[in-house]
Amino acid sequence: MGAGLDDVVAALRAASSVFVLTGSGISAESGLPTFRGVGGLWRTHRVEELASPEGFARDPSLVWTWYNERKAAHHRAKPNAGHTALAALEDLIVDFTLATQNVDSLHRRAGSRNVLELHGSLHEARCTQRAARRPFSDDGLPMSEIEHGCGGRFRPDIVWFGEPLPHAAWTAARDAAARADVILVVGTSAVVYPAAALATHYNRRAFVAEINPEATAISDSVACVLRGTAAELLPRLVGGLQAARAR
Ligand code: APR
To answer: Which H or E element spans position 99?
Structure first.
């Protein structure tokens, strides 16, 4: 194994508390596009039009068409070896927390249990005016059902730009990052806050490792950079930890 991997395995072996932050890159090998990379969603769509309250108010049908397409893609996608490796890692670490920026639910489908969905998930829609909620099924939300009787509109129950993160998920993630011995940052460009702050802002003593084929905004601030894909490197990390423990 490369020097970097050995260092991360050694840190995991000594760790009792591990925090993992993931982004869209971990789902790339499940066939889901990232946001800012080559062919990324923000390369071909305007974020303001599709993932903001203002964009939704301007054209709710466009936004629902886009989220219905993403929901169908999530339904077709399967967890990859990176998701599965993190689910296996959770079984090896006493205090394990996985915070994801993704809304594709692939971590839960891979078997991860303590998952904090910082940007929500595409399971429900909620009314813009009242507390009404409704399922957001794999078949998508029909355009004829966007309007809610109260005068509000149903919108995807996820976090858009300029909106606060779910309080419970955020505080649990921040506390887990703060107490971690090891922090793994997987498949995120680390440019969207406050989620990106979890990687390096709340813990000065943790061993922080980045798993990403490309450099990111935090590459110069972490202890170890593993240049490669999540589906390749995470199984090698978990395998190395299991082998080290078996010795
Ligand atoms: N394995 C690991 N990382 C990968 C892989 C892979 N196979 N493929 C791409 N990546 C990396 C890219 O190099 C990039 O650094 O994943 C990262 C994806 O970055 P973004 O596209 O910016 O996605 P993300 O960091 O998740 O965006 C954060 O921004 O648009 C909002 O709400 C949206 O949750 C999203 C947030």
So the answer is: strand 95-100
Q: Using a cut of 0.90, tell me whether the model's pTM lies above it.
A: yes
* CB distance 230 to ligand 1 below 6 Å: yes
Minimum-distance ligand 1 atom for the alpha carbon of 214: 13
Please name the fold of domain 1-31+79-119+165-247: Rossmann fold (3.40.50)
Q: 33-76+122-158 — its CATH code?
A: 3.30.1600.10
Token reading at 140: 């998508």
Alpha carbon distances (Å) from 223 to 120, 183, 211, 232, 237 = 29, 10, 12, 20, 16
| Residue 119 annotated to the active site | yes
- Residue 116's identity, in one-letter code, is L
Tell me the per-residue pLDDT of 71-111, one tens digit each, with 9 for 90 and over. 999 999 999 999 999 999 999 999 999 999 999 999 999 99
